Amino acid sequence: MIRDFEYKGRWWLLEKTDKKIEGTLSFVHGEDITLELSGVFEQDDPEIIMGISDDNKITLYKNLLIKRQDGIHSVFIVEYVFLGKHFNQPQDIGFSSVSINYTYLEEWLSGLPFKYGLQKIKLDCLNSTLSINHSSPAFIVITPEQHKHFRWYEETWKDLENFLTLVIGYPVYPKILKGYGDDIQIADGGTIKEEIEIFYSLTQPNIKKYLYRSDMIIPFPSMKDKFEEYINNWFAKSEKLRPIYDLFFGTIYDPSMYREFHFLALSQAIESFHRCVYGGQYVTDKEYELIKDVLIKAIPDDLDEDFKKSLKKGLEHGNEFSLMKRLKELVNQFWKNCLENFVRKKSTFIDDIYNTRNYLTHYDERLKNKAVLGEDLFHLNERLKLFLTVLLLDQLGITRNDICEIINNRERYNSILLLL
Question: Residues 6 or more apart from 321 whose CB is under 8 A from it?
């Protein structure tokens, strides 16, 4: 995944197997995967390109033509590379299992899986098992009960990637990805699984040379007895919480994002979290329909049509809790012994989030003086990230007291304490 590579060989389309073009597939860390050909295909953006380099079978999936010159030269950006097998159709791209080596995985494990006898873990909601191969490098292996398509594995390893990012506290990336296919015979008459290495480009990954256990939020040794429970909770809730994952982890993986975009993503993640986990309606839908009908009938007939439409549209979500109410409920739940150590005043913290979100959403000048901007917005974002970390740790099944102890004893949060 992260290593650079270059494969020179011949490339062709499935429907044009007699037309093979010389070219080079290359990848440089932090850049796109590209295929440069000494010729052109008749199809601009072929979904599948086949290749052979020495004895390596290669399948390129999702290919975008970015340059074509006089029928003698063309360049493609490649989204996925499968090294070790030819897949004829997109629906054929599948595996019996996948193994992943992530950044910081060895540091997070701290050499403990064998020592504590970690065996295969059943992932009930995925009808799969998870095991850790603590070799060098270490691999996490996902094995479903049935052969699965590549896209299923991609969603699964990304959910696992987010789990590790949460408990490690820094963005985690796949370093090595391997898929295992059909059984193939070997010289002694036995069989082994086909091994297919998977590549896709990572845009400027932010990777530390080394990460110490003291830098992490929850190293594996601290959760070893509860790991099976936590990882099952994570996957069981992933579908419901994925919008929150996308918003929250998006800010972790892209620290260069403008502060304002960071804030809007984090505040939306908190609001969405409350909606997904707790719901939040003042009355039942049936009761609200009666209230809404009364309010709509009360709109004067002589108003501008666009104005009337705007009023009616506003009533569509009138039964949902406001952002202010959602913030109060969440902050109150996690205030004692936890958030109170990182926030000066509860009401100010809630007001800052509410007013800043409204100002950045509507840019109403009347709200500007109440909004948090500039350097102070950076510090507010750090508290929001901490807040969301606490909310997601709670969803793993970690007790509130343990979450408070974890947060309060991590050196990484000292900078937030110093800002009080």
Answer: 274, 280, 281, 282, 329
The amino acid that residue 16 corresponds to is K
pLDDT score of 416: 63
- The single residue listed with the structure tokens 């191969």 is 133
The CA distance from 159 to 154, in Å, is 9
Helix (H, G, I), strand (E, B) or coil at 200: coil
Q: What does the DSSP 8-state code read for residue 281?
A: B
pTM over 0.90: no
DSSP for 92-112 reads: G-EESEEEEEETTHHHHHTT-
Cα 95 from Cα 111, distance rounded (Å):
28
| Torsion sign over Cα 137, 140, 146, 150 | negative
Contacts of 253 (CB under 8 A, 6+ apart): 165, 171, 206
Q: Are the C-beta atoms of 208 and 372 separated by less than 8 Å?
A: no
Task: Write the CB contacts of 406 (distance below 8 Å, at least 6 apart in sequence).
Answer: 217, 218, 222, 393, 398
The verdict on whether omega for the bond into residue 137 sits within 30 degrees of 0, i.e. cis, is yes
CA angle in degrees (0–180, nearest 5) for 199-79-101: 25
Tell me what pLDDT residue 204 has: 66
For residue 329, report the phi and psi dihedrals to the nearest 5 degrees: -65, -45
Question: How far is residue 56's CA from residue 83's CA, in Å, rounded to a whole number?
Answer: 7
Report the distance separating Cα 385 and Cα 257, nearest Å: 14
Task: Compute the average pLDDT of residues 266-281.
Answer: 92
Q: Give the CA distances from residue 93 to residues 144, 176, 180, 189, 259, in Å, rounded to whole numbers and listed in that order.
A: 15, 18, 11, 27, 40
pLDDT score recorded for residue 117: 45
